[in-house]
Amino acid sequence: GAAGFGGVAATTNPGRITGAILAGIAGGVVVSTTMTFTFSLSDPTSIALLAAALGLIVGIVTVLGYKRYRARRERLAREARIAGVSVDYLRDIALPDASGTEVHVDYLLLTTRGLLVLDVCDVAGNVFGSDSMTEWTVMAAGRRFTFANPQAALYDRIAAVRGSAGSIPVEGRVAFSRAATFPKGLPRMTLREESL
Questions:
Q1: What backbone torsions phi and psi does residue 91 show, to the nearest 5 degrees?
Q2: Burial profile 89-107: b = 16 or more Cβ within 10 angstroms, e = fewer
Q3: Residue 180 in 3-state DSSP?
Q4: Which residues contact 183 (CB under 8 A, 6 or more apart)?
């Protein structure tokens, strides 16, 4: 049967696909090109194309699976470090703040010295930031992007926890993963995850 779409007309026969493609208009003359593709399991070229397509699919699935595995492994390692330095902890909680809205807290750790609000910042590359900067910069692999200074949000989270904690001491830190480096040194109230 024949089918047409977007300037391409295709006719299919068993084992053969023929496409007529309009290549353009040159000097008022319509130029047309016809391409013929034959697929057969006995044709070495067809087998090579099929193998390449399957290899590409397997490669993509493998890369995506590895990324997911690595992210899960890093999350489990983070939680093992947190469990090692705390008596107990809560993850991904919402607390009311003074204005009546809710504040999200990545981790709230109960330690022997009180409560610790832990914000996790997953960025990769060289991080440039300081207490007085409103935006911090990340430079990695030829890319550059900025993000809001995480200290301001941390202060809000600490205040929300203090509002609910009563007389228990509350501190806070922004934890950066191993993928982040600070060439100019760590700003106040920040740490590297592995130093937990």
A1: -125, 140
A2: beeeeebebeeeeebebbb
A3: strand
A4: 126, 128
Look up residue 25 and give its DSSP letter: E
Cα–Cα nearest to 175, from 95, 88, 106, 87: 106
- E-strand stretches of 14-142: 16-26, 29-38, 88-96, 102-111, 114-121, 125-128, 135-140
Chain center to CA of 152: 23
Considering only CA atoms, which of 168, 165, 185, 167 is closest in space to residue 176? 185
Rounded to two decimals, the pTM is 0.65
The whole-number mean pLDDT for each consecutive block of 10 residues of the chain, a chain of 196 residues, reads 43 43 46 65 84 91 89 84 91 89 94 94 93 94 94 94 92 93 94 86
Q: Is beta strand 135-140 parallel, antiparallel or unpaired with respect to 125-128?
A: antiparallel
Tokens of 119: 């914000």
C-alpha distance from residue 153 to each of 27, 58, 79, 140 (Å): 63, 42, 22, 24
> What is the number of alpha carbons within 13 Å of residue 98 lying toward its C-beta?
7
Backbone φ and ψ for 161, nearest 5 degrees, come out as -70, -40
